[in-house]
Write a structure and sequence with these properties.
By secondary structure, the protein is an alpha+beta fold. It has a single domain, classed as Histidine-containing Protein, Chain: A, CATH 3.30.1340. It is 31% helix and 25% strand. The chain has 2 helices and 3 strands; from the N terminus they run H-E-E-H-E. A 3-stranded mixed beta sheet has the order 1-2-3. Helix 1 packs antiparallel against helix 2. It starts with 11 loop residues before the first helix and ends in a 12-residue tail after the last strand.
Length: 89
């Protein structure tokens, strides 16, 4: 999925990678499992994260890095929970 950005200043592949890197390295998001796709003036974010706060941070970061794009945050939240029982080996 590749298309010129609305501003025409930066190749869309570079923008997608900047968004991905920002999400991976930001202290609030710190998420490697988010895919970023750009098409038609939109950024689609998909993947999973452990909390609603991380999901919100991911969307906010994408908006900050790509303000000219409509960000669609389809990141799912899958909370991390400890196991109910101890595994016997």
């Amino acid at each position: 999925m590749s298309q010129d950005p609305p501003t025409g200043e930066e190749p869309v592949e570079y923008l997608v990678e900047r968004v991905r890197e920002t999400i991976a390295t930001d202290a609030d998001a710190h998420e490697l499992g988010v895919a970023v796709q750009a098409a038609g003036g939109r950024l689609l974010l998909t993947g999973t994260t452990a909390s609603d706060d991380q999901r919100r941070a991911i969307g906010q970061l994408a908006n900050q890095v790509a303000p000219d794009y409509d960000v669609v945050n389809d990141v799912d939240v899958t909370p991390l929970t400890p196991p109910d029982t101890v595994e016997q080996l």
